[in-house]
Amino acid sequence: MRRLLTILLALLPLTEAVAQKCSLNCTLTGLDDGVGVVVCEPHGNRLAPVDTLTPDGKGRIKIERYSNDGDAQFFALALTRPQSPILHVMLLPKEKVNMDIAYNPAHNILQITKVKGSVNMEMYRRYTDIMAEVTTNPELQAAMPDAMEALIRGNSKELMSAFLVTYFEAAFDEYYDLYKTVRDSTITRYANNDFVKHVDQKVRSVIAVGSEAPDIVMAGRDGKELRLSDLRGKVVLIDFWASWCRPCRAENPNVVRLYNRYHDKGFEIFSVSLDNNRDAWLRAIEADGLVWSNHVSDLRGWSSAAGRLYGISSIPATVLVDREGRVLARNLRGQQLEQKLKEIFGQ
Fold first, then answer.
1. Cβ proximity of 214 and 310 under 8 Å
2. Residue 271 near residue 309 (C-beta atoms within 8 A)
3. SS3 labels along 152-175
């Protein structure tokens, strides 16, 4: 018995390390002769080609992948032609998936028409239907966010939802509840997946209205540290912007006007730049007449520590903080910001 136990313990690491295979069989239609399929893998923020496949006489290709960690395999398919559309593929361990894909050259669309063997790819097929409808009928563009939200909410427990929800990345504050729904539905089952980790991080990063605003300690224009907490007792607009951001620059005259109107009543601005070029940052402050003294930046662009602390994924972005250091509102601009300041300070 002792010998058998020793053998079993010796084999355990090998058993745990056995790779789990998943496979994808595709049949493509609508391709010109000689057009191949490029398999791409994510590397950082881009897709890099790793293989090129030639469909057989019936338009068929086969892809096999192996997973050692039990996580899903994620890659993309494109065509060997200029301006190729892209399809994303997500395969769970041991899945054997069959898909039919149609290429529409008139609109340069790859559309999945049939899926067997994968709930995630069936969800993605419905996404390609939405995209095809919008591409062929631009009048439906306005309805696309609602269609996407309905698709994600109806399948929030599926891993694909953690990928597709990033469609709303630029409007995260508006769709926070959708992100939270996806996070709550996937975090237990897919805790180690990168997409689920991203959604979880986004949800955790939100500074809710009514909560205490985290302190920002960062270098100012002269290199000396400035602290958001030093403005306690004032109503403070934390303004995330950058010299290269056109909407930010367009909003700056309104911010200057409101600063001049309410500064004497206790209104301050704490500007956090997502620049990575110091000269461009300082020139923009001067050019736009941003006369307040609280300008900070760590010159790390989108990796800004303050931006990450406050979950900033698009700019311009604002956080309005009350005299006690609690968040009053997020992303107020233009007339909305002006109306809120009128409520606080009076006409």
1. yes
2. no
3. HHHCCCCCHHHHHHHHHHHHCCCC
The pair of three-digit structure tokens given for residue 44, joined into one six-digit string: 């950082």
What is residue 11's predicted lDDT score, i.e. its pLDDT? Answer: 44
Question: What's the CA gap between 313 and 291, in Å, rounded?
Answer: 26
> Residue 90 is encoded by which pair of tokens?
């997500």
Tokens for 196?
């689920």
CA distance 305 to 297: 9
Handedness of CA 204, 209, 210, 216 (dihedral sign): positive
**Based on the number of CB atoms within 10 Å of its own CB, is 43 exposed (0-12), middle (13-18) or buried (19 or more)?**
exposed
pLDDT for 282 beyond 80 = yes
Separation of alpha carbons 244 and 258, rounded Å: 22
Cis before residue 316, ω within 30 degrees of 0? yes
Which amino acid is residue 236, in one-letter code? V
What's the pLDDT at 17?
Answer: 54
| Average pLDDT across the chain, whole number | 91
The token duo for 220 is 């100012």
Q: Please give the single-letter amino acid code of residue 315.
A: I
Does residue 243 contact residue 275 with C-beta atoms inside 8 Å?
A: yes
8 A C-beta contact, residue 327 and residue 320 = yes
Whether residue 206 has pLDDT greater than 90: no
Q: From CA 53, how far away is CA 287, in angstroms rounded?
A: 53
CA distance linking residue 12 with residue 264, whole number of Å:
71
For residues 91 and 159, what is the distance between their CA atoms, to the nearest angstrom? 10
Residue 327 in this model has a pLDDT that exceeds 90: yes
Give CA–CA dist 150/178, Å, rounded.
10
Indicate the length of the chain as a whole number: 347
Q: Residue 1 is encoded by which pair of tokens?
A: 């018995």
- pTM (whole model) above 0.85: no
**Contacts (Cβ under 8 Å, ≥6 apart) of 148:** 127, 130, 164, 167, 168
